[in-house]
């Protein structure tokens, strides 16, 4: 592994950081999340149309840039520093790779160029609150999370050659504003039980989308209700049993690596802001940053952030080399973000405990991401199980 960044990668980071510093400060973030879409559409146009972020990891044949997951992860590290609300995660990290992996030739040709340009946004809808399970981050995703043939979840039936969906999915990232939904649904009953993915277009009859209140407003979520909605099967009309759980798990590992770098960017920025503050705030006639106890606390945070950054970068690189360490990297990054944001609130003193302070945005991001994609102990536990680290309570050497 070559740990050095290329000139192109450095340029992506520099250009994106400059743009976000100008247009995505704390007040701009708060204003953007209160819009109906949940993000600044002008900023999204700049990120997509000018910088091409949604198409970074898509092939050039489909209008993408043709880069690797590493470039997308580095871009998300910068967006994480600013906590920039945008449909980048739901569109480019979760939905587009599934369409690329499982879609038919006509679906890929018709949808991926629009996703790469940012003209179309997409969201992955899975039943209940099981996004981490569906992506194979905290357990085997070949279970009955999509409905299992019983009431609940999302069910799919084929009526006169047309697929129809009914059921509900909660906590769908950007589900209220996405122009395209990729919906996981159960079909086949007990005789041929399986999970398939379906495409539901904006404005479909019987589709109800309700934006929900979320802890982290920069990650807008929605409840999706499917009331006998006509849908299009993702893939060939008569599929030769596509490995949907396998495709979801592959996307989950990549998403974990990207989310890890994003969390590292947020943790790094939270630490920077705290260091700036302790250099200014004075007690007993001197800056509190000069006290040894404060120095020790911030040094521990710095070590944690740097360790998480190394793990996240390695996970992003490893996705293209057949290694699956995204879950472990995500666990370490989320833990470092929680530590950095918590220490930031503590060391800002009384002002840090006010709900309106910027430090709370980072703490909410840490807590919200752990609720969506974790928790940390389950990410680590499943990674240990998958690697067969323990056997009968003893470490296997």
TrEMBL record:
Residues 257-377 form the Acyl-CoA dehydrogenase/oxidase C-terminal domain. Its cofactor is FAD. InterPro entries: Acyl-CoA_Oxase/DH_mid-dom_sf (IPR046373), AcylCo_DH-like_C (IPR036250), AcylCo_DH/oxidase_C (IPR009075), AcylCoA_DH/ox_N (IPR013786), AcylCoA_DH/ox_N_sf (IPR037069), AcylCoA_DH/oxidase_NM_dom_sf (IPR009100). It holds the Pfam family Acyl-CoA_dh_N. Coiled coil: none annotated. Transmembrane segments: none annotated. Residues 6-118 form the Acyl-CoA dehydrogenase/oxidase N-terminal domain. It is an enzyme of class 1 (oxidoreductase). Keywords: FAD, Flavoprotein, Oxidoreductase. One of its GO terms (molecular function) is oxidoreductase activity. This is Acyl-CoA dehydrogenase family protein. Its EC number is 1.-.-.-. The keyword Acetylation does not apply. Belongs to the acyl-CoA dehydrogenase family.
């Amino acid at each position: 592994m070559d740990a050095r960044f290329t000139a192109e990668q450095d340029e992506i980071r520099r250009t994106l950081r400059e743009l976000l510093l100008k247009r995505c400060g704390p007040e701009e973030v708060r204003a953007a999340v209160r819009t109906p879409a949940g993000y600044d559409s002008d900023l999204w146009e700049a990120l997509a149309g000018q910088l091409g972020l949604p198409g970074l990891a898509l092939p050039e044949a489909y209008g993408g840039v043709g880069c690797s997951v590493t470039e997308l992860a580095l871009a998300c590290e910068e967006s994480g520093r600013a906590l920039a609300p945008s449909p980048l995660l739901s569109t480019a990290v979760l939905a587009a790779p599934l369409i690329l992996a499982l879609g038919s030739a006509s679906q890929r040709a018709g949808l991926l160029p629009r996703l790469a340009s940012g003209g179309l946004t997409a969201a992955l809808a899975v039943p209940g609150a099981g996004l981490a399970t569906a992506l194979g981050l905290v357990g085997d995703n070949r279970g009955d999370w999509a409905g299992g043939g019983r009431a609940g979840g999302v069910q799919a039936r084929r009526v006169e050659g047309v697929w129809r969906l009914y059921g509900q999915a909660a906590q769908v990232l950007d589900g209220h504003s996405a122009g395209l939904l990729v919906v996981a649904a159960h079909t086949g009953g007990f005789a041929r039980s399986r999970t398939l993915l379906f495409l539901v277009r904006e404005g479909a009859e019987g589709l109800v989308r309700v934006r929900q209140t979320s802890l982290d407003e920069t990650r807008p979520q929605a409840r999706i209700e499917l009331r006998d909605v006509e849908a299009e099967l993702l893939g060939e009309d008569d599929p030769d049993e596509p490995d949907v759980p396998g495709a979801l798990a592959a996307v989950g590992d990549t998403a974990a690596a990207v989310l890890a770098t994003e969390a590292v960017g947020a943790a790094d920025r939270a630490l920077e802001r705290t260091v700036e503050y302790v250099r200014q705030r004075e007690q007993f006639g001197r800056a509190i940053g000069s006290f040894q106890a404060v120095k020790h606390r911030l040094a521990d945070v710095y070590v944690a952030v740097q360790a998480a950054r190394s793990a996240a970068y390695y996970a992003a690189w490893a996705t293209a080399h057949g290694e699956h360490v995204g879950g472990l990297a995500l666990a370490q990054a989320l833990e470092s973000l929680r530590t950095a944001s918590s220490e930031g609130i503590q060391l800002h003193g009384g002002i840090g405990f006010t709900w309106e302070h910027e430090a709370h945005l980072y703490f909410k991001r840490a807590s919200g991401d752990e609720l969506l994609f974790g928790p940390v102990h389950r990410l680590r536990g499943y990674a240990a199980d998958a690697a067969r680290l323990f056997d009968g309570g003893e470490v296997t050497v």
